[in-house]
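FORM 12-B: Structure-to-Sequence Request
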């Protein structure tokens, strides 16, 4: 979680971004939020809102006013006729998921962690994997946005549709999200089937595995021929959750405890990484379990890392992944973290990584403190050759010139930004790079 030191410095979860804002605000209502924004504008301070700090970029960094939304939490309203829930923007996803389950409701899809706030997750394009269901932002049905002049603007497909199209993944550039209305559905069960598979098999059958499963993803362990696959599909039950001992052993002891030790050892002795990878890739066995969605989609992630992720046209994913594998085989790089591959259907959100095209995501990671730039640079070169779009909250080096080429609606977003924030109250160095000025 993002944290604030005694000297007023705020750091993100990964520890690679640190800022000392001139002041902080913790509004407890939309009126207090609007007042804080107006006061900052009057005082000549830039404004950013920070959630739990799970972005690896400096998207939320500011030396002006840093808004902490930890008091803007909770469910405002559940509409069972429209099947929507309206939630305060600072609500952590883990609290939302648990609250929805108590109401007999669930989101259709979610990412693999649930530490982020609702607004932080949608604003950066957080996603899971899905054949038919997209990112968290694609499940948004309405937004409440406080703009640079302190107005509270409601938007949806029917009300301010241009703003709605862009603000669902608004990067914090259009205003501060104060509430989100999300589509929900009756609570359902998912059966997860996890099993090892060879790299050659999973890449040869990728399209079939994607087509046959509602949610398919896999991890490839660099320096090996081994992958771990996960297929999640809706189930009529009965529920058959992981047992407390087996669940703890794989999700906590192996995936966090042992992996933490192995990652630390690999950072100190890079030559040992391929051997560690071969052992790690065989440690997780096949398993099947059935549970409510958030207990299947999400997992604890306690080992800290740096991450870069690119969204590619789905038909390019296998070729790009094979290029990454070939690059590592001929390079001296030693990579101890698996490479993650997920999918999403095309959506209609202006700056969504899946905007207008069926998408596959390739994510690469390095243990925190280990040198990552050479690896990420080499992977980024492969991804951009395939027209890749970087995840807005993860490490990348792209700028507005490149992004305008890979997002056909990029100009729509910047034109809207000119209208809603002409004085760039919500600007920072990251937004100047990715959106221009």
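FORM 12-B RESPONSE
SEQUENCE OUT:
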């Amino acid at each position: 979680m993002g944290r604030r030191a005694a000297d007023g410095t705020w750091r993100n979860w990964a520890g690679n971004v640190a800022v000392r804002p001139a002041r902080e605000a913790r509004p407890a209502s939309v009126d207090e939020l609007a007042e804080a924004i107006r006061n900052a504008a009057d005082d000549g301070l830039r404004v950013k809102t920070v959630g739990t700090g799970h972005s690896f970029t400096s998207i939320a960094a500011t030396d002006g006013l840093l808004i902490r939304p930890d008091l803007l939490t909770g469910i405002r309203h559940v509409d069972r006729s429209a099947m929507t829930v309206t939630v305060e923007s600072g609500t952590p996803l883990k609290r939302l998921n648990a609250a929805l389950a108590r109401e007999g409701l669930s989101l259709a899809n979610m990412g693999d962690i649930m530490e982020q706030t609702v607004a932080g997750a949608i604003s950066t394009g957080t996603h899971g994997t899905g054949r038919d269901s997209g990112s968290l932002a694609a499940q948004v049905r309405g937004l409440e946005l406080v703009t640079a002049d302190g107005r509270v603007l409601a938007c949806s497909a029917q009300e301010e549709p241009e703003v709605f199209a862009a603000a669902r993944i608004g990067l914090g550039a259009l205003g501060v999200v104060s509430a989100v209305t999300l589509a929900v559905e009756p609570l359902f069960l998912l059966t997860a089937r996890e099993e090892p598979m060879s790299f050659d098999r999973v890449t040869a059958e990728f399209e079939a595995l994607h087509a046959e499963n509602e949610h398919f993803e896999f991890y490839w362990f660099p320096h090996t021929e081994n992958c771990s696959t996960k297929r999640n599909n809706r189930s009529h039950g009965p529920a058959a959750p992981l047992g407390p001992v087996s669940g703890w052993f794989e999700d906590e002891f192996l995936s966090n405890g042992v992996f933490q030790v192995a990652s630390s050892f690999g950072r100190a002795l890079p030559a040992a990484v391929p051997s560690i990878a071969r052992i790690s890739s065989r440690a997780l066995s096949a398993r099947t379990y059935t549970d409510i969605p958030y207990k299947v989609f999400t997992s604890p992630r306690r080992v800290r890392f740096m991450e870069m992720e690119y969204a590619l046209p789905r038909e390019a994913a296998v070729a790009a992944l094979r290029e990454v594998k070939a690059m590592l085989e001929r390079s001296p790089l030693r990579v101890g973290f698996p490479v993650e591959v997920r999918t999403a259907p095309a959506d209609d959100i202006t700056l969504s990584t899946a905007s207008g095209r069926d998408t596959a995501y390739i994510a690469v990671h390095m243990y925190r403190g280990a040198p990552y730039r050479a690896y990420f640079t080499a992977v980024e070169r492969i991804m951009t050759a395939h027209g890749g779009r970087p995840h807005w909250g993860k490490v990348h080096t792209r700028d507005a010139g490149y992004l305008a080429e890979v997002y056909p609606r990029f100009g729509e977003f910047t034109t809207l930004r000119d209208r809603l924030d002409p004085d760039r109250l919500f600007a920072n160095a990251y937004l100047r790079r990715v959106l221009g000025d």
